[in-house]
Amino acid sequence: MQTNFDKAQLADPDIKRSNEILRSCVHCGFCTATCPTYKVLGDELDSPRGRIYLIKDMLENSRDPDEKTVGHIDRCLSCLSCMTTCPSGVHYMHLIDHAREYVETHYRRPIVERALRWILAQVLPYPGRFRLALRSARLLRPIKRLLPDARLRAMLDMVPAHVPAPSRNDKPQVFSAAGTRRKRVALLTGCAQRALNTDINDATIRLLTRHGCDVVIPKDLGCCGAITHHMGKAAQSHAAAAAVINAFTAEIEGEGLDAIVINTSGCGTTVKDYAHMFRDGPLAGRAARVATLARDITELMNDLGGLRRPLVNERLRVGYHAACSLQHGQQIKSLPKDLLKSAGFEVVEPKDAHICCGSAGTYNLMQPAISAELRTRKVKSIELVRPDVICAGNIGCMVQIGSGTDIPLVHTVELLDWATGGPRPRSLRSAEQQPPEGGSR
Hints:
By secondary structure, the protein is of the alpha/beta class. Helices cover 50% and strands 8% of the residues. The protein is built from 25 helices and nine strands. The chain has helices at residues 7-10, 13-24, 36-41, 48-60, 67-74, 81-85, 92-106, 111-123, 127-137, 150-157, 192-196, 199-210, 226-229, 234-252, 265-271, 274-277, 284-293, 297-303, 324-327, 335-342, 363-366, 368-384, 395-402, 412-419, 426-432, and strands at residues 173-175, 183-188, 213-217, 259-262, 294-296, 317-320, 346-348, 389-392, 409-411. A five-stranded mixed β-sheet has the order 1-3-2-4-5. A four-stranded parallel β-sheet has the order 7-6-8-9, sandwiched between helices. Strand 8 (389-392), helix 23 (395-402) and strand 9 form a beta-alpha-beta unit. The radius of gyration is 21 Å and the shape is globular.
């Protein structure tokens, strides 16, 4: 694609990077075939190729974005399926991230939308605030239909029936390896996940120590910055990411780390991109080192040589949902399935496994109609393969899909932990205690 940025514009490193990405696009349109919003809406401007044209026009002319352009950019899920499909290697992720930052600083949203986005940015990255908000929101459910905004109603729909108490395992400490230590790793404990499901980090710690890892929970470890990063709030996201980088660096320069383990794939995609995010700043070296050490939990288990001999003799049929941030953002596709199979589970995948479930960070809250349609399609395709349990590697996907089906949802690590000596996942125990009910909600 031909671009016409002048020298002054190209002096901006973000413009320079976007120019490189734009020039790599050859207009082939392969991306439209796998774009969820294009599949739902059928509008060329709601496809990656269409958004690329809009972003190019906006950036080249240094113009304030109009409502139409912002609408099409906002409707992008950042599922990154287009990057997997693209034969030209267009790095759409960096382009849409830049576009969102540009919109955030050059466009004044309606007051209700500004308020909602501010609330999400001030609540979701903070487990204590988020836990309090979830418990408070349950009181509003009886009057949900009276709320004037569909986004507010969508937020209430996502509130779980049970909000767990904080886990002591998320506090700064070190969990020693069982037996000979093979690696010393740090765990990114996350933010929203710590409020929604404490079993995931607990299972991760048990699995890693059982396989010879010292697991460190560093001090001053908060949100990785992913939530606000995808909202275009660069200052807030970079501040959160910088704190995470410094927390991990303290451990790296202390007793050392062999890896930084991440069990929320949305966070993993962002942390692995820290080198780009901080490429021109004083944290560039530290950020690159942290990004290099970042490993999804399934990657680390593979590095360790796979699972020790499984202990569970129950052959469950597991419907594996491939989170977009894992299969497209990090290009991790077979490892989770291979580990589950090695644990003795029967693994099945739904049709169109490459298509997003509609979660996408805050997308299901800010774009509830499109998100609900994608969830319905995803749940239907999963239920057609008749799994005993649905498994995913990202908390956002688990909440999204779980809100549309009665089939139990678990994180991949919960099954791997159970298969190698840990407790049976809580959601499976809960399902056994209730009368069987089929179908979706």
